[in-house]
Amino acid sequence: MDSFRNELIARFAWIGGHADVLGMLADGRFLASAADALADPFRDVEVTKIAAIEARGFVFGSAVALRLEVGFVAIRKLGSIHRGAKVERTTGPDWRGRRNVLRLQRAALTRDDRVLLVDDWAEMGSQALTARLLIEDCGAHYLGLSLLVDQLQLPRGTAALKSGARGVRRRGVRALAATAGGRRRDARPPRRQR
């Protein structure tokens, strides 16, 4: 895992002040390593579904679902097409000050589901917090959040994402696992250039 962490940091390219996460995905070996790094902290947890937020989250979430051999649930943004009844919530402001409407197909989760949320990057946590509420609105159990880059800086938001959970750092990949106690320690992600 240390080698993955080092590779992740080395591969970060900045285009117009934004990390080129999609560019890193062009390398299949890197994508497989990222899926393993996101899944590993949760291999001993009973996960039944992976949820991820549109768009890059779909790539990482699907890869982790395949690694853990569980189902994938898409959390879509406004304007997307979902069949059937949905739960819908508006996020708090993201790092750009924007709010998004997120939607989840109600039938995709049941009370028996234990859901891990997967994404590539979190700074404010507004989308992740909203995704957690959608998961819980469907009656499922939120297990935690697995991220490649964790820049969560708001203690209140981080606590809500953990739900009494312990921050688990697995060699550079930040995961918030639903286990008892503990305190959060920051990973050292590369900072966005302004």
Question: How many domains make up the 3D coordinates?
Answer: 1
Largest sheet: 8 strands, mixed
In quaternary terms, these chains amount to single chain
Structural class: alpha/beta
Instruction: Please report the number of helical segments.
Output: 6
Instruction: State the end-to-end distance.
Output: 29 Å
Mean pLDDT, to the nearest integer, reads 80
What is the β-strand count? 10
Alpha carbon gyration radius: 16 Å
CATH topology annotation: Rossmann fold
**Uncertain segments:** 163-194
- So what's the overall shape? globular
Order of helices and strands: HEEHHEHEEEEHEHEE
Based on the coordinates given, report the CATH architecture. Answer: 3-Layer(aba) Sandwich
Helix share, percent: 25-40%
CATH top level? Answer: Alpha Beta
Strand proportion: 25-35%
Strand order of the largest sheet: 5-6-4-3-7-8-10-9
Please outline the helices and strands:
Elements lengths: L1 H10 L2 E2 L2 E2 L1 H4 L3 H12 L9 E5 L2 H13 L2 E7 L8 E5 L10 E5 L8 E9 L3 H12 L3 E10 L4 H8 L3 E5 L2 E5 L17
Parallel strand pairs: 3-4, 3-7, 7-8
Antiparallel strand pairs: 1-2, 4-6, 5-6, 8-10, 9-10
Helix pairs in contact: 3-4
